[in-house]
Design goal:
Layout: E1 4-5, E2 10-11, H1 25-35, H2 39-123
């Protein structure tokens, strides 16, 4: 079970072993990995890279969420501003219409007043 073939006296992963291609390949892979002095270092480096990648993806997701939130709130703000602006413009236009009508009305009164004194001057 440890990968040593009792009949030949060596591991099935050895090139000379006739069972090299037939033995328990999964256990041999496991043995090679754990006997390799660099395996743990490589595994640690790989795990660190995975962790860094996950952190970057998390940051990206957070930034995207913030961006979407900001754009949605800013678009809502823009809509509110547009509505306020529209209402203000309507109020302003109503005010200007009232002012114009008042000015016209005053002009008419002034013209009438002018006509009356000139008429009186002619009669003198």
């Amino acid at each position: 079970s440890s990968g040593i073939n009792a009949e030949y006296g060596h591991r099935t992963g050895d090139k000379e072993c006739p069972l090299a291609s037939k033995g328990n390949l999964q256990s041999e892979q496991f043995r090679k990995m754990h006997e390799d002095p660099m395996y743990h270092m490589m595994r640690q480096k790989h795990d660190e890279q995975d962790e860094e990648r996950q952190q970057k993806e998390l940051r990206i997701a957070q930034m995207r969420a913030m961006l979407e939130e900001e754009t949605s709130s800013s678009s809502e703000d823009e809509k509110k501003k547009k509505k306020k602006k529209k209402k203000k413009e309507e109020r302003d236009s109503e005010k200007s219409k009232k002012r114009k009508s008042e000015k016209k009305h005053k002009k008419k009164k002034k013209k009438r007043k002018r006509l009356h004194p000139s008429d009186s001057d002619d009669s003198d």
